[in-house]
Amino acid sequence: MLVQPHILTKALDAALSTGADFADIFLEDTYSSQLTVLNSKPEQAIVGQLYGAGIRLFFGHEIVYVTTNDLSETGLVKAALNAAQSRGTGGAKKSMPLLQVPFDTIHTYGEKPWEMNRDRKFQWLNAIDQHSRARNSAVTQVEAGLNEKFQRVQIANSKGLMAYDERAYSRIRMNTFVEHNGVKESSSEDEGHMGTSEIYDQINLKELAEQTVDRAMMLTTAAYAPAGEMPVVIDNAFGGVIFHEACGHGLETTSVAKDASVFCGKLGQKIAHESVTAIDDGTIENGWGSLNMDDEGNKTKKTTLIENGVLKSYIVDEMGSRQTGYEITGSGRRQSYKYAPASRMRNTFIAAGKDTFEDMIRDVDYGLYAKKMGGGSVNPGTGDYNFQVGEAYIIRNGRIEEAVKGACLIGRGIDTLGKITKVSNDLKLARGMCGSVSGSIPAAVGQPQILVSSLMVGGRAK
């Protein structure tokens, strides 16, 4: 896909021809595949390719962004001129000579998605279906799918940067539906990483399928959760979605630069309990949200957001740095060339603490153990959130007791940070897709188990 430097230089000069003070070009060639098994047989096999370029111009703090599928010299220069002439009236500038950044990756990839036999992939999905149905006769339907993406990108900007990267993503998912004594329930699970799909030869798909069935069956007999304020122990891995949504988005300069975040102006201030250290790390080998470089060509890094309760950094992209003066953190991300980049999280998690999960449970006389989090909604400006709990149990007299369903957690991110009194030593990360102004991107969330001293639980029971 590589476009020659002299063509990129001509396009960048065209972008600067009416007074823009910065321009960059993001070129993309992405192969994607989606396979699905339903009703115990292959249901769909969709393969696609995304090919194009996005050209971005800065006029001070204003952005002009255009896209094109024509990556010829004529096509790129025309698109760049259209962008320049739509806004600028100043004198022409010249881009700096392009200097290629050496391609260097910390990730290990195997067979490309188009190189691997499709029958092998359907064997994994069929195994999920068969293990699920064999687990319990109450299973009425199983949907299993495999999503793969292999992305090649080339980035050049008027400051002289030219860089290339390759990203591979693979994610297997399942939805299981059961009916028991007239009660219908469902449960879902997934497994994925930044990398290619041969990993599923080593993953215990039987165990994954059986866990999903057992959770769905548990929900058919569980009572409804109680409502009210109480201590809540939130499990590790996807439990970190609360920090990601209710706090992480408020730390992105996408919000901070607009003064639309509750965390504005709080650098160096204590915003969380001293047991809380939070990190946004793009450098984890084959991590779901990792990158070699971000979608602006900046090298990714490990960023400590909160250290012992004190706010240390925001999540900063190129424009966010211009608007706020904060150092770029290598966090400019986008779904594809169709979107201009914005400051986005990568692998975002609360770091491991010194407590144990068992001690947390023993500390609670009556409360809720949120073992598996579901979806929810958040107001990024205030951090107010409402999250469903997919699997939950009552804690009574320091012990995990009966399962309950229908629980949700209601709170405000900055308040919840201050009520985290214990953080376990068992850190785990989980995969998710994060949506924002620059589209949907792979982002990992995570934490050890945490104890929140008081949190509003929504439920039906008294």
From TrEMBL:
Metalloprotease TldD/E N-terminal domain residues are 23-85
Q: Which residues are in the Metalloprotease TldD/E central domain?
A: 112-218
Q: Taking every annotated instance into account, which residue ranges of this chain make up the domain Metalloprotease TldD/E C-terminal?
A: 228-459
Question: Which keywords appear in this protein's UniProt record, sorted alphabetically?
Answer: Hydrolase, Metalloprotease, Protease
Give the superkingdom in one word.
Bacteria
> Which Pfam families does UniProt cross-reference here?
PmbA_TldD_1st, PmbA_TldD_2nd, PmbA_TldD_3rd
Q: Indicate yes or no for the key word Protease.
A: yes
Its family remark reads:
Belongs to the peptidase U62 family.
Report what the protein is called: TldD/PmbA family protein
